[in-house]
Amino acid sequence: MFDSTAVNLEILKQRAYNLRWATVPQGVIPLTAADPDFPSAPEIAEAITRFVKDRYLCYGPPDGLPDFKESVATFFQDKRNIPAKPAYIFPVDSAAFGIFVICQAFLSPNDEAIIFDPVDFLFRYSVETVGGKAISFAIPAGTEKVDFEELEKLITPKTRLICLCNPLNPTGKVFTREELLQLGNIACKHNLIILSDEIWSDIIYNPHTYTSIASLDEAIRERTVTVTGYSKSYGLAGLRIGSVMASNQAHFDKLIKVSLHQSTVHGANVIGQIAATTALNECDYWLKAFVEHLHHMKQLCVTELNSMKGVSCIAPEGCYVAFANITGTGKTSKEIHELLLNEAKVAVVPGLKEWFGAGADGYIRLSFATSNEILTQALTQTKIVLNAL
């Protein structure tokens, strides 16, 4: 399912936008947006086909199709050890919008939210768009200990929210149970809401294991709102489907109100819910094989990056992105990005503040969710250019 023959470049060049094959110049290999180059599981396409053949494409319930809510709840119960209730779950048109909805629900103008650094720009964007102030907390890459005493020092009377991204994009860090307990206890102590972004939680590499912070204990769970999506695990980015899960009625009511679902101004499309339900119910075999393939691609990517002049890369514990330190080249992240694009014909994401925060300075991010053949070609071209510096 995941060899070079599975990747249809002609279709990708027509359909894969967001910095990928349809947007880069001809001949450039994009290791950019974290989206698989592989087609989704066949069961997903079959389920969509069955649904649309009747030609009734009606409105769905504002809080989600019952089958979708049940499937998501079962996933959290069975795979994440959370006593999830379908009634407290609703679909959103992406995990990105889910993050925004949570910020909208729990932040007022001038409230503060702690976000990690580096982390995906969507956290800062969401906090600031609703009028809040994003307070950065540095998270070291790899296994270096997280200083939660420093995190607690950032809390002020204006702090309302801690934004947890686990696994952490772009570094690939997977937080341990002990680390999550420390973070959860701080949130309880200071009466803070935890926004837990778990969109990457299926992509974990042995020997690491994943723990959902809402599974730790009831006190932590009661102040946690979990958001996830189905693009990273199942290749459904274009269907714009994610989910938000609260742990109590008060939080759910607040979230659904600001989502605008009940007014039909906003909402999650029904076909996306059909696809996600099928993925959760029928496609474990596909996901398992995908993660096994990604494990090999991770090893290839990290090994090759560490053999390049001026580059070092800590192996990610989760996610399918490599976060490579390029300070040894003597060039900036932007300069390396431009050099690789123009000379190596490889597109990467530069570690710029607007993408990941100040902590990404001196890094580039590469997605390895592609075939061995494509990744090997991209890394070979990258190595030739960097070793010539």
From TrEMBL:
Its cofactor is pyridoxal 5'-phosphate. Belongs to the class-I pyridoxal-phosphate-dependent aminotransferase family. It is an enzyme of class 2 (transferase). InterPro entries: Aminotransferase_I/II_large, AspAT/PAT-like, NHTrfase_class1_PyrdxlP-BS, PyrdxlP-dep_Trfase, PyrdxlP-dep_Trfase_major, PyrdxlP-dep_Trfase_small. Keywords: Aminotransferase, Pyridoxal phosphate, Transferase. The keyword Cell division does not apply. Transmembrane segments: none annotated. Its EC number is 2.6.1.-. The lineage of its organism: Bacteria, Pseudomonadati, Bacteroidota, Cytophagia, Cytophagales. It comes from the Bacteria. This is Aminotransferase. Residues 28-379 form the Aminotransferase class I/classII large domain. The keyword Hydrolase does not apply. One of its GO terms (molecular function) is transaminase activity. It comes from Arcicella aquatica.
